[in-house]
Design brief:
The protein is an alpha/beta fold. It has a single domain, classed as Rossmann fold, CATH 3.40.50. The chain has a seven-stranded mixed sheet, sandwiched between helices. A hairpin with a 2-residue loop joins β6 and β7. The relative contact order is 0.17. The chain binds S-adenosylmethionine. The site of S-adenosylmethionine has 21 residues, from α3 and β2.
């Protein structure tokens, strides 16, 4: 990994599931929570999107959780290498489509649930509001947008505490000091978290009025927004 060059293609793909499991606190718990939330929003003939599905883990888990219902699950992923890997995992699931596309430029069908699990933070700030607007427009009334993001602290003091705690977390997960330093350098200009309030503002400007926080561990937060 070099300066400011993090990406989601090539050799990271095979290692991705293990890497993100170790990197994101409560990664599995968040997936479980999204599945439990789906019980409230998905029913027969629903459409459910995951934006930035990477290797398809969450889309697959959602499909398994809802096996008794007739639901279409669509994972959207911009990197072809990820899509190829995900497609191997979901081969036996007719209810899952993994699409290689940019969420910014594609059309979404009407959906009852749209999930973004640590994806928006990798999308250029100038594109984010357009994507939130599109998500709001694509949801049926009463539908849910489930958003998980790395978040910045509300001021420099909190941000310093968040960074220190997260560095400790990564050391405990087995990353070396060099791994942590190199990854931070490689993510410059690639991973750009907003604060909790910044994300709430994006949701509100898109039209969401009903929003709650559903999970928070230091600088990792989940929101449920209902249209
Ligand atoms: C941190 S990963 C998401 C992890 C995944 N949701 C999970 O639960 O394991 C972010 C993913 O978003 C994808 N991505 C980034 N920008 C995108 C865009 N504009 N459209 C679709 N996917 C995008 C990246 O290629 C990457 O695979």
């Amino acid at each position: 990994m070099m300066n400011a060059d993090w990406n989601f293609s090539g050799e990271i793909v095979e290692k991705f599931d293990n890497h993100i499991l170790k990197s994101v606190p409560m990664y599995k718990e968040g997936h479980d929570l999204v599945c439990r939330l789906s019980d409230f929003f998905l029913s027969n003939d629903s459409v459910c999107y995951e934006i930035g599905c990477s290797t398809g883990s969450l889309t697959l888990q959602l499909a398994e959780h809802n096996r008794k219902k007739n639901i279409k699950f669509i994972g959207v992923e911009i990197e072809q290498d990820m899509v190829d890997f995900a497609n191997k995992k979901v081969l036996e699931y007719n209810e899952i489509d993994i699409i290689c596309d940019n969420i910014l430029s594609m059309n979404l069908d009407k959906a009852d649930m749209i999930v973004s699990y640590y994806t928006i933070q990798f999308i250029k700030p100038r594109e984010r509001q357009l994507i939130f607007d599109k998500i709001y427009e694509s949801l049926n009334w009463g539908g849910a947008f489930v958003l998980f993001e790395k978040v910045r602290g509300p001021d420099a003091r909190f941000q310093d505490i968040f960074t220190a705690l997260y560095n400790d977390y990564k050391l405990e997960q087995g990353f070396s000091k060099e791994d942590i330093f190199d990854k931070t350098r490689s993510l410059k200009g690639v991973l750009e978290p907003f604060s909790t309030q910044g994300n709430l503002d994006l949701l509100q400007r898109a039209g969401f009025k009903d929003v709650v926080s559903i999970m928070k561990y230091v600088c990792f937060e989940g929101f449920l927004a209902i249209k």
